[in-house]
Amino acid sequence: MACQQFDLVADRLQISHDERDRLKYPKRSMTVALPIHRDDGSVQVFEGYRVQHHLTLGPTKGGLRYHPDVTLGEVAALAMWMSWKCALTGLPYGGAKGGIAVDTRKLSNKELERLTRRYTQEMIPFIGPQVDIMAPDMGTNEQVMAWMMDSYSMHMGYTVPSIVTGKPVNLGGSVGRREATGRGVAYLVNRATDTVNLDITKCTAVVQGFGNVGSVTAYSLAKYGAKVIALSDVNGGLYNAKGIDLRKLETYLAEHNTVAGFPEADPISNEQLLTTPCDILVPAALERQITEKNAAKIQCRILAEAANGPTTPEADVILDQREEIFIIPDILCNSGGVIVSYFEWVQDLQSFFWTETEVVDKLFRILETAFTQTLHLSRKQTMSMRQAALSLGVSRVREAKKMRGLFP
Ligand SMILES: NC(=O)C1=CN([C@@H]2O[C@H](COP(=O)(O)OP(=O)(O)OC[C@H]3O[C@@H](n4cnc5c(N)ncnc54)[C@H](OP(=O)(O)O)[C@@H]3O)[C@@H](O)[C@H]2O)C=CC1
Ligand SMILES: O=C(O)CCC(=O)C(=O)O
User: Fold this and answer.
1) What pLDDT, in 10s, does the model give residues 20-30?
2) Is Cell membrane found in the keyword set (predicted)?
3) Please, what are the domains in the chain?
4) Is the CB of 284 under 6 A from ligand 1?
5) Which phi and psi (to 5°) does residue 140 adopt?
6) Ligand 1 pocket, residue 209 CB under 6 Å
């Protein structure tokens, strides 16, 4: 998917084939074996990955995913998207992504800690605050980042907060990082409602995935006045035309560890959720949710891609013809996370910490610029918002490579 999208943009930008390869191939791809002791004394080996896409603009940056289906190819695609995302938002980074093929539900907390520390240890030759900086993604969180920071710091012999972002605030994390991605999604949705002349206080919203990104997006959209009518996690979805009471849902989630079965809504499947009529549709879980099978059935006005790669290129062809749907493409829509990660890194390097107001103001300023530039290009050159966002990201990396000298 990432390569297909890149080739479409490269065609438009008339990038030659040798230059394309230079932009497309990841600089470094690592696969590591991670043996750990299980709590019962047995040994199990997991497979871990890290792909660093390009090093042209600074260190590489991107999340670490724990999911049973993680593969090297998926991580490579996510790393490439991180590159275009960082360039689109003007961050001094190349893209990276990592992952471990693991079902975290089947591991105890101690096992998860051992796995994380082992992965960090294997990655030590390839990471560093000026080399590659990890952050949370699906299945990982502040605790995982704290273990990584601790493992790296033990190796160095002193505390190195800038080795990861998305850490707990009392270990050098930034205020506002946990909320950053969802908060950014809601900010951009609000901007998109203005663009398509919708009143957000009269809008209905549907959110797939209720983890870090999905839940904060739902709460933030509700704060803007939208009515959240459907939600889901891996176990299934919920629908209530009158709106889902998010406070009650929070209590239910804390008790049941899933949103499925919440009594004040009707159960729906994740497939049904995606085609539920609404104004704002937010996929905030996995890739490839909107495909050629359901793209024609989606019934929203704004598609806000909080997840990475939720829409396949085949679905894009269908959505491009449905001009009534305004798409906020993933590399723009979920960029709030890496933007505040950048702020966290800067704060750690300076050991000087900002207030939440400073973080949020700076976040919104960067998002505003990226949104305006993307919208402007999309209108000026009559291209989709995805093509415009990718064109801006790819062009900036290409220019930087040219300026540094293409063939050292
Ligand atoms: N965290 C961040 O800052 C950023 C994340 N993203 C992207 O946002 C997306 C979500 O990440 P994040 O919120 O961090 O991850 P989390 O692990 O916190 O949450 C993922 C959510 O998706 C649900 N889910 C998993 N599989 C499915 C499925 N097949 N159908 C429906 N729901 C499913 C999970 O359910 P359950 O909990 O029951 O497993 C959970 O609610 C990913 O694409 C990620 O790459 C992008 C930018 C930054
Ligand atoms: O915060 C970061 O560094 C990376 C976030 C991320 O993984 C993403 O934007 O997909």
Assistant:
1) 999 999 999 99
2) no
3) 25-159 (3.40.50.10860), 179-333 (3.40.50.720)
4) yes
5) -120, 165
6) yes
